[in-house]
Amino acid sequence: MKISFDLDDTIISGNKSFETERQTLFQKLLGMERIRKGTVELFKELKKRGHIVGIYTTSYRSCTKIKLLFLLNGFSIDFVINQRRHLLKLYGSNIHCSKYPLAFNIDLHVDDSRGVEIEGQRYGFQTLIIEEQYSEWVNLVLNDLNCHNT
Ligand SMILES: [Mg+2]
């Protein structure tokens, strides 16, 4: 499966608070953002299971910067869709939603937003919503995938 993850408040804590991975001095010096605890473990496990793993965000952070963020945490993500790519892809279409994973052949999108969940119901794409208090979020994602596969 091709799986995308939202960035803000799902992997990077902006307005929400959750535990984050430890940062090296190098990451701190570069001013890199901290990612949610368990992210690297989860992404590696997903890759091991043969999934394609990437980021789908409404932010305008550059794709290079996002790829680097994960590389410095020891993981190479397969794809990045930022707001620029999203808008380019949907330009001229009748689809008006913040995220549209079907346009990028994404099977499952993981996000913190209930609004994205509603868009998924409306436009027919699969979402998994992770609340900030879900400390067991890694297992939640893995269990959800197990349900899809059976
Ligand atoms: Mg978000």
Summary keywords:
five-stranded parallel sheet, 5 strands, single chain, Rossmann fold, 150 residues, binds magnesium ion, globular, alpha/beta
Strand order of the largest sheet: 3-2-1-4-5
Q: Specify the biggest β-sheet.
A: 5 strands, parallel
**CATH T-level fold name:** Rossmann fold
Query: What fraction of the residues are assigned to beta strands by DSSP?
Result: 5-15%
Name given to the CATH architecture = 3-Layer(aba) Sandwich
How much helix is in the residues?
Answer: 25-40%
Ligands, deduplicated = magnesium ion
In total, the number of strands is: 5
- The general outline is globular
Radius of gyration: 15 Å
How many domains make up the 3D coordinates? Answer: 1
What can you tell me about this protein's structure?
It is a single chain. By secondary structure, this protein is of the alpha/beta class. The protein has one domain: Rossmann fold (3-Layer(aba) Sandwich), CATH 3.40.50. A 5-stranded parallel beta sheet has the order 3-2-1-4-5, with helices on both faces. Helix 2 packs parallel to helix 6. The two termini are 13 Å apart. The model has no long low-confidence stretch (mean pLDDT 93). Bound molecules: magnesium ion. The site of magnesium ion has 7 residues, from loops. Magnesium ion binds next to loops.
